[in-house]
Protein: AsnC family transcriptional regulator
Organism: Magnetovibrio blakemorei
Amino acid sequence: MSTKTASPLRETLEQEIVTGQLAPGTRLEEMGLAERFHVSRTPVREALNQLASIGLVEIRPRRGAVVAAIGLKQMMEMFEVMAELEGMCGQLAARRMSGDERKKLAACHLQGQPFSENEDHDGYYAANVCFHECIYQGSRNAYLADQTRALRNRLAPYRRLQLRQRQRLSESFQEHGKILDAITQGDEARAKQLLRDHVTVQSGSFTDFIATLPSELIRNSA
């Protein structure tokens, strides 16, 4: 019974962490969550352990659970891996996507245009997720898609902040357009490189991004 109760609780907390509603470093008190979700502390504890197993929550001895923060070195490493995984998805999508899937990708791309023009960061982020999800599915490699999605979700709070950099929405939208063209044309090498460049840690822009992060979002790297 506890597993069934913990599942929707975990899904809600996971979504709130991924969307930034629960920022890194936020304490997750069992009693407060039990009262909020009208459950006992057992399914709360189970949900927190499940979130800890995928890296979204950190269980600290005598301090309880907190939304996990990422060390700077670890963040750079994760972004590098993320770039490679996204590139692989793009390469396979360019080879394997059906005509209907490419139309859906184009629709997701166009969905982001008004949000980009109006500097609507939350709206653009949703369209951005739609665009990348289409590519994951179009790769026709479920394992690769799951691994890419898991890492993307782990970095989601930071990715959302990255989109708030000056002119990043318009730049991201333009990059999506080039990626769409490469996939539509079946250009595997170009799709792979464009997606790697789209996600990768590039020295100047990444340094600017790090400079904008509140200190509480980055734990000290040991």
About this structure: Residues 72-96 form the longest helix (25 residues).
